[in-house]
Every structure is written in C-alpha cells, then in structure tokens.
Amino acid sequence: MDRIEKSDNIEVLTQSKISKMLGDGRLEACEITNCQTGEVRTVPASAVFTFIGAIPCTDWLPKEIEKDSKGFVKTGRVVSDSPYWTAKREPFLLETSRCGVFAAGDVRVGSIKRVASAVGEGAMAVLFVHEYLASL
C-alpha cells in the first residue's frame, strides 16, 4: 500500500465505481463515477484491476466447518486435530474440518487470493471429491 501511495503513475480512487468501459475492439477508457459526489470522470485505460476486498462471506457455514478469527475456512492438516474431524485418515489438502466438505479459492486460510489459483484449487477439489467418494 505504501508503494502504491508513493507511486506517481497510480491514482487511488475511493468511493468510486466504473460506470462504463469505453473502446473500439479493446479497452481505451473508463467512465468513473464518484459515489459520494456523483462526479463522472473519463480516464484513459488499457487495463482494469478491481480489488473487491478480503472479507470472506462464511457466516452461513455451520460450526463444524472451522474458520480462523477473520472468517477464512481452515483446510488440510490444520483441521486433523479438530473435534469435528471424524475420519481415521488425514484430511485432503482442501478438505474442511467436516469430512467430505471441501473449500477452494479465496475463502480458504492461506490461499493465494488470485483467480488463477482459485480456478486451480477448484479443479483439485474435484479430484479430492472423487478420492473421498471412492473411499466410502
């Protein structure tokens, strides 16, 4: 964050949203609306990166699926000592404290928090589901 704030070629716009993306066959500019003032700016852009936050939406999960203090889901070896872990084997890498329930992507404790990683973990979770079902 310090590097971003000190950078001359990055402008941080808070309380704002992209209201339009403009271009002919490729991105050329974004129309940005300040949500507090209503001011609209058109900013030249060839790419867009959006950071939507790092607060997991896991309150709906039952207590048997353990989370850390920030709400991220615990998976893998970390949950082998959980009172909710009932299997006689070690948990699979993406398995939660509830045997047979898997978590992938940003919701996991220690995940990379990148789309490509989440997609890869999702593919891995499918493999683990097959292994889990084969063991029943």
Task: Supply the key terms.
single chain; 136 residues; alpha+beta; 2 domains; three-stranded antiparallel beta sheet; 2 helices; 3 strands; elongated
Structural commentary:
By secondary structure, the chain is of the alpha+beta class. Helices cover 18% and strands 13% of the residues. It contains two helices and three strands, in the order H-E-E-E-H. A three-stranded antiparallel β-sheet has the order 1-2-3, with no helix packed on it. A hairpin with a 5-residue loop joins strand 2 and strand 3. It is elongated and about 60 Å long. The chain starts with a helix and ends with a helix.
Our measurement of the CA-to-CA distance between the termini, rounded to an integer number of angstroms, reads 48 Å
Note the total helix count: 2
- CA radius of gyration is 21 Å
Question: Would you identify the regions where 5 or more consecutive residues have pLDDT less than 50?
Answer: none
- Could you tell me the number of beta strands? 3
Q: Percent helix among the residues?
A: 10-25%
Total domain modules: 2
Mean pLDDT: 91
Structural class: alpha+beta
